[in-house]
């Protein structure tokens, strides 16, 4: 295959395919304007691959969920029985092979990854497998998201995934994280050579350069002009047409040619354009209704604009859009009406409804109702984007204003489910919410709240809880929906905290009203929230415990558990119940992996990293943080978006260079975005760092702004920090008040960490002759907890006290234990404080941070190694980590080499937590 001037691009594609022959996978987006040669490059790659699976996006099919993915996977569906059961069920529903509940997008994506990457080598041709998605801007969004996920997870399968994408449009955002290469016009000499090659006459050099300049080296424009220009124009004796057909003008150029065809030819072309991707029989049947036949395609075939009637293939997508866009509206409607009439199969009823909608010249309730019914079928296949599009069109065709507004709200709900948050807000902006019936107004308020939160608008965070509260009231007697709305208000209020526009007592009052007469999960959550808000630690904890018990009940479904995870974690925090929180997160991680709920899994990792950071379990926090970062990359989150998901509390324990500046910047971001909860916990983290570095007055001032002394509430976990900071900065009064609050909290909670930190605080406040029993009791209690941070600090403060009592040997013993614990998790700030104490005793101090061995595993390798050590097969590990089995094998071989082992048995003997 000869490609003028594309040597560099071809070499890059050859390199990708060459690496694939060695087992390495790759993904690449070829991006450029229409006609620039993306498809030619993709065909070149196809000619060099051993096996090629190819799909092209078709504009009329963008609203049919998973249609593109289904077409790509058809050759592989015979192997689908190899898929894990959850992936198989999701894929079969998405592809219309089986009925079932709407499939999760990422379960479908994982199934596609397994099929594309997991075909046994013995059953595949030798060499790389190439997968091409051309005209990706016209793939349905579900297929594009699924293929983007696959592209980000490919690694060691010998698979190359290429996308062809127009420069305009926002589809590149869906492909975030995948390498993109901009394809521009041909270099000057190559463009001249191409023009000379496609004509049958001599081309004047000056004329050639003018043509190249006016087309920008666009190969399609050069080729078409070369065929259309006369010998006189090419020779320079006749002026060239202006402007040259390129970009948007290229479509107009095709439209002008099509306008000159006979009416029957234009009608045939319009039918083919309106039903691109449809069946031949349907096209012929619709043509018969409009009294045209495949023979009428002759002029367009002679001009090479189409090939293969009646199975029409357009020379370029611009030809199709020129045909359709250039037709008068009445003719377009007639074509769609004929196509709708030609569709008789029930399986194509949604396509028939779409053609009927396109044929409507004015509002039509019958067509609108049919569209809304068919939207449900799209949703059943997981096509929230298609459902939103169908219901939006149904709203446009609805004559009655009230019903039209209701359908717009339903379309906004579907857009929210599809992740099209901006579209949901635009739909709601056209609705007068005050005029909606109560329950519909409640849906609109909930949808607006969640859409604004997900777009990251500060107003969304600040107003979200208030909107959910208003929604709960709008739902009226529908108490189930009202309770769900208030639970959502609790979550959003917890996120916004002091930046929220509604107070906790307001939410608690509504919660208490809705609790009456209910014992369900949401009722117990609302009861716990209301009781704690109004009665605090003194009387509210029993209701909070009942709610936690209900959330963690083994009988609760995975879906319900994940939906109430944030509330559950927050309630466990109020109870200082670390064991319950750790168990809840572990079960939620298993549930999210089992169900393929990757956004929920991302939340689990985020909450896990925060939880373990606050407990000082920094190695486990690292695991969650690394897993969350990998998952966000796979989901296509941009680097800027990921910044909001970083963990300042983890960074402050580590206290690396520039930490105060970076955490200070995070505080500004959190406040700007309305994330008051993250703002508060970050300030607490800075206070912990201040205590570690001996800046006690600063810690006291920070903590005094978080804690309302005399009324221990959300930040009760900061009370031990305030006791130490206030006492060591000379503010004994504040320290005693904080200790009194901590006594109330610890005795109400009764957990090892609560009681242990209370004893540590009492030891700090006690006279010298009474402190030691409190120190020993603190260590005893904290040894029974799961978080090493407070235990290490108990050893540290005990060692500091012993040094002041001149008990040098005992002090060294306690300080050495503390340093070893801090070093084990690389808690550098506290390690340095401990080392200073050891130096004050005389002699050398151990390094506070253990150096990593050069054979240390990467986070991904460590995750694979742990699962292999625990008996997981490659397929099980792949499903657990959302990789292919080939990639697991690749990582496992590297693990063996780094650790010097040869089997899973040796790995079990070598690798320890």
TrEMBL record:
InterPro entries recorded: AAA_16, P-loop_NTPase, Sig_transdc_resp-reg_C-effctor, Tscrpt_reg_LuxR_C, WH-like_DNA-bd_sf
Ranges of residues in domain HTH luxR-type: 850-913
Keyword presence, DNA-binding: yes
Keywords carried by this UniProt record: DNA-binding, Transcription, Transcription regulation
GTP-binding recorded as keyword: no
Any matching Pfam family: GerE
SUPFAM superfamilies recorded: C-terminal effector domain of the bipartite response regulators, P-loop containing nucleoside triphosphate hydrolases
PANTHER family, alphabetized: DNA-BINDING TRANSCRIPTIONAL ACTIVATOR DEVR_DOSR
Protein's recorded name: AAA family ATPase
Species for this entry: Paractinoplanes ovalisporus
Taxonomic placement: Bacteria, Bacillati, Actinomycetota, Actinomycetes, Micromonosporales
């Amino acid at each position: 295959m000869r490609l003028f001037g594309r040597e560099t691009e071809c070499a890059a594609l050859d390199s990708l395919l060459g690496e694939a022959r060695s087992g390495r996978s790759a993904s690449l987006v070829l991006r450029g304007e229409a006609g620039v040669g993306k498809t030619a490059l993709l065909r070149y790659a196809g000619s060099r691959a051993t096996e090629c699976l190819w799909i092209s996006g078709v504009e009329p099919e963008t609203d049919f969920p998973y249609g593109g993915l289904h077409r790509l996977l058809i050759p592989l569906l015979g192997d689908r029985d190899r898929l894990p059961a959850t992936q198989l069920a999701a894929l079969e529903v998405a592809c219309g092979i089986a009925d079932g509940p709407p499939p999760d997008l990422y379960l479908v994506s994982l199934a596609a990854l397994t099929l594309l990457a997991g075909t046994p080598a013995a059953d595949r041709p030798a060499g790389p497998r190439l997968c091409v998605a051309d005209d990706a801007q016209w793939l349905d969004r579900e297929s594009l998201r699924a293929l983007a996920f696959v592209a980000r997870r490919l690694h060691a399968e010998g698979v190359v995934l290429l996308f062809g994408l127009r420069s305009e449009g926002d589809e590149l955002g869906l492909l975030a994280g995948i390498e993109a290469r901009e394809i521009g016009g041909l270099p000057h000499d190559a463009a001249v050579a191409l023009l000379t090659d496609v004509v049958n006459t001599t081309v004047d050099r000056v004329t050639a350069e003018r043509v190249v300049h006016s087309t920008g080296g666009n190969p399609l424009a050069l080729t078409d002009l070369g065929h259309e220009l006369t010998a006189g124009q090419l020779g320079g004796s006749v002026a060239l047409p202006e402007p040259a057909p390129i970009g948007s003008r290229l479509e107009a150029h095709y439209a002008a040619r099509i306008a000159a065809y006979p009416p029957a030819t234009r009608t045939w072309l319009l039918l083919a354009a309106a039903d691109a991707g449809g069946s031949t029989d349907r096209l012929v049947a619709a043509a018969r209704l409009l009294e045209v036949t495949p023979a009428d395609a002759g002029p367009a075939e002679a001009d090479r604009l189409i090939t293969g009637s009646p199975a029409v293939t357009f020379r370029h997508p611009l030809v199709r859009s020129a045909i359709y866009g250039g037709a008068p509206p009445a003719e377009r409607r007639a074509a769609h009406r004929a196509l709708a009439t030609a569709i008789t199969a029930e399986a194509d009823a949604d396509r028939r409804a779409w053609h009927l909608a396109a044929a409507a010249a004015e509002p039509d309730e019958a067509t609108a109702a049919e569209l809304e019914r068919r939207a449900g079928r799209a949703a059943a296949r997981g096509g929230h984007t298609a459902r939103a599009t169908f219901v939006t069109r149904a709203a446009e065709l609805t004559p009655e204003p009230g019903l039209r507004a209701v359908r717009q709200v339903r379309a906004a709900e579907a857009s929210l489910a599809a992740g099209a948050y901006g579209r949901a807000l635009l739909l709601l902006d056209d609705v007068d919410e005050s005029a909606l019936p109560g329950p519909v107004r409640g849906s609109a308020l909930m949808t607006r709240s969640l859409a604004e939160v997900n777009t990251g608008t500060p107003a969304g965070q600040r107003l979200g809880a208030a909107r959910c509260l208003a929604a709960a009231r709008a739902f009226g007697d529908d108490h189930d929906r009202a309770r769900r709305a208030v639970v959502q208000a609790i979550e959003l209020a917890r996120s916004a905290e002091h930046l929220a526009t509604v107070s906790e007592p307001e939410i608690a009052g509504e919660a208490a009203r809705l609790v009456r007469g209910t014992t369900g999960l949401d009722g117990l959550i609302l009861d716990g929230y209301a009781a704690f808000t109004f009665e605090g630690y003194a009387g509210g904890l029993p209701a909070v415990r009942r709610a936690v018990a209900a959330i963690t009940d083994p009988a609760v479904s995975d879906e319900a558990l994940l939906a109430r995870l944030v509330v559950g974690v927050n309630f466990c925090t109020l109870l200082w119940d670390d064991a319950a929180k750790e168990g809840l997160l572990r079960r939620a991680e298993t549930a999210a992996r089992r169900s393929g709920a990757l956004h929920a899994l991302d939340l689990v990792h985020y909450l896990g990293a925060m939880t373990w950071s606050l407990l000082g379990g920094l190695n486990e926090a690292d695991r969650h943080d690394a897993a969350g970062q990998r998952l966000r990359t796979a989901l296509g989150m941009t680097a800027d978006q990921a910044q909001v998901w970083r963990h300042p509390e983890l960074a402050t324990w580590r206290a690396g260079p520039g930490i105060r500046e970076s955490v200070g910047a995070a505080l500004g971001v959190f406040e700007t975005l309305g994330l008051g909860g993250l703002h508060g916990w970050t300030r607490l983290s800075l206070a912990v760092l201040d205590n570690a570095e001996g800046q006690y007055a600063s810690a006291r001032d920070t903590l005094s702004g978080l804690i309302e002394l005399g009324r221990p509430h959300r930040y009760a976990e900061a009370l031990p920090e305030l006791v130490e900071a206030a006492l060591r900065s000379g503010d004994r009064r504040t320290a005693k008040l904080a200790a009194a609050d901590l006594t109330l909290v610890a005795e109400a909670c009764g957990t090892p960490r609560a009681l242990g930190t209370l004893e540590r605080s009492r030891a700090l406040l006690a006279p010298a002759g009474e402190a030691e029993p409190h120190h020993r009791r603190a260590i005893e209690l904290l040894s029974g907890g799961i978080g090493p941070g407070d235990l290490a600090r108990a050893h540290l403060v005990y060692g500091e006290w012993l040094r002041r009592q001149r008990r040098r040997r005992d002090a060294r013993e306690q300080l050495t234990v503390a340093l070893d614990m801090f070093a084990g998790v690389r808690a550098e700030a506290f390690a340095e404080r401990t080392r200073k104490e050891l130096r004050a005793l005389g002699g050398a101090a151990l390094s506070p941070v253990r150096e990593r061995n050069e054979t240390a595993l990467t986070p991904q390798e460590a995750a694979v190694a742990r699962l292999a050590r625990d008996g997981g097969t490659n397929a099980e590990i792949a499903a657990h980590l959302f990789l292919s089995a080939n990639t697991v094998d690749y990582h496992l071989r590297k693990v063996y080499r780094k650790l010097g082992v040869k089997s899973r048995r040796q790995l079990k003997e070598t690798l320890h937590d």
